[in-house]
Amino acid sequence: MLVLIGVLLVIIGFAVRLNPLIVVTVSGIVTALLGGMNPLQILDAFGSGFASSRSVTIFVVVLPVIGIIEYFGLQEQAKNLISKLAKLTAGRVLLAYLAIRQLTAAVGLTGIGGHAQAVRPLVFPMAEGAAMRRYGHVPEHIKERIKGHSAAADNVGVFFGEDVFVAVGSVVLITTFVDTTYHLQLEPLQVALWAIPTAIAAFLIHGFRLLRLDKQLDKEYAQLTGHAATADAGSAQ
């Protein structure tokens, strides 16, 4: 029962917004110590876990490239491009990215997109540029909201799109678990086919949320404009 203290540490750490890497590492060490592991065993467990999942950290290789292209003005160019397209709004930009992300994930191209590779250097600046063209300025709290919706569009797209592809790791994990635990013969194609309605539902639901973002921003900017007009009238008197 004491090993569950590690879960509590994770919850507390995330609640107070500490560094996620430090929170998870400390929680893992505490859980291991309470479970009776000695320091050498803990170190061996961390090393084995890193070695078995080192492909997850491959995105680090592209970070210097992203940093260089951002330094030379990638975000500014993305904003300028979107600002010239009159009909695009922040919600519509993110809806288009959601569709692209989900379709590419459905055919196994999960590496196309991602927070570090696409959302931060391209998708978020484009959505921000659409908002700037529409409203003239973007306050910090609205910028953070657009940033959150940009990350969410990527998460929803890849999460619900990748299961449609039969050879993705999550489908293999599901079939292996079901076959081993329940002694059934579940085919990957069955999982992929049943993932299609879920993917469509996820796209419709989250797409509605993205389009609703535009209406929310319209309403919020109208209120901000009204407050500014009232303040100007009061100062004039």
UniProtKB/TrEMBL annotation:
Q: Does the record carry Transmembrane as a key word?
A: yes
Question: In terms of domain of life, where is this protein from?
Answer: Bacteria
A Pfam family found in this protein is DUF969
Segments spanning the bilayer are 56-74, 191-211
Q: Does the keyword Membrane apply?
A: yes
Task: Provide this UniProt record's keywords sorted from A to Z.
Answer: Membrane, Transmembrane, Transmembrane helix
Recorded hits in InterPro entries, A to Z, give: DUF969 (IPR010374)
Q: What is this protein called?
A: DUF969 domain-containing protein
Which species is this record about? Arthrobacter horti
